[in-house]
Amino acid sequence: MDRQSTPPGDIWLVGDVCEEGLGNLKGMQQIVKKFKDKVIAYLVLEGIGLGMIQTAALGIHRYQIEVNSKGGHAWSNFGEPSAIHELIELSAKMLAIKLPTNPRTSINIGAISGGTSINSIASHAEMQIEIRSEDESTLESLSRTIHKITTQTNPSGSVQTISEIGMRPSGRIIENSPVIVAAQAALRNVGITPVFAISSSDASLPISLGYPATCLGITSGRNVHTPDETIDIHPISKGMSQLFHFIDHIWNSQAINY
């Protein structure tokens, strides 16, 4: 793309919030609420993942599970139900669920807390659990199983509750759609072979609504979501160049009538 030329339409550069963690795509929800389907394409940029093109939104359900009991002293009240012990038993049952490898499906307990002291029987404990699947029906089935395990009758008398704390929508965009064709052309123009990916990003929301959208990476990196996460500086020039090629292709595609 000639970087000195004037594009035939508006290009909005938007920085949003609440994509990671429990943000639940709140920032992207506002963007999509504003533009709806009145755009040629939503292009979401990630720091890493250069070469990958998001063609499907990975469905995600997130829950908080809490256990409450009477509690007591670790010695004099030994035998009374411990919220921590029971939460551990619940988590063990959930992690024992046999998951399919195709469609790829996962369970992750990302945070767990509870108790007040080492010599007290815990009266409260909670955990945050996330389930993902490439298949929506598999995700729904797994969600029902998690609910069933949590809400089953507990003879100890403690109270177990589950609440939804986040949902990521699923969806798919056809691989010959103009936005995906443009992304492939952009990568090939900078000498990178495109790879289609099922992932969760801000693009998941417009994809789930049937809007033209995808996500591209700017560079490569490793050790994602760890203290040792890094990105590579050298590939950034190719990552930026792909953006100009993408914009050029999306404007000039014969499949789009602007």
Task: Describe this entry's structure for a reader.
The strands form five sheets. The chain has a four-stranded antiparallel β-sheet with strand order 5-7-3-8, with helices on one face. Helix 4 packs across helix 6. The radius of gyration is 23 Å and the shape is elongated. The protein contains six helices and 13 strands. The chain has helices spanning about 25-35, 85-95, 135-150, 180-190, 205-210, 235-250, and strands spanning about 40-50, 50-55, 60-70, 70-75, 105-115, 120, 125-135, 160-170, 170, 195-200, 215-220, 220, 230. It has about 260 residues and is of the alpha+beta class.
- Sequence of strands across the biggest β-sheet: 5-7-3-8
**Would you list the SSEs in sequence order as H and E?**
HEEEEHEEEHEEHEHEEEH
Shape: elongated
Distance between the termini: 18 Å
- Look at the helices and sheets and give the structural class: alpha+beta
Report the mean per-residue pLDDT as an integer.
92
Spans of at least 5 consecutive residues with low confidence: 254-258
Q: What portion of residues belong to β-strands?
A: 25-35%
Number of strands: 13
Helical fraction equals 25-40%
How many DSSP H or I helices?
Answer: 6
- The radius of gyration over CA amounts to 23 Å
Give the biggest sheet. Answer: 4 strands, antiparallel
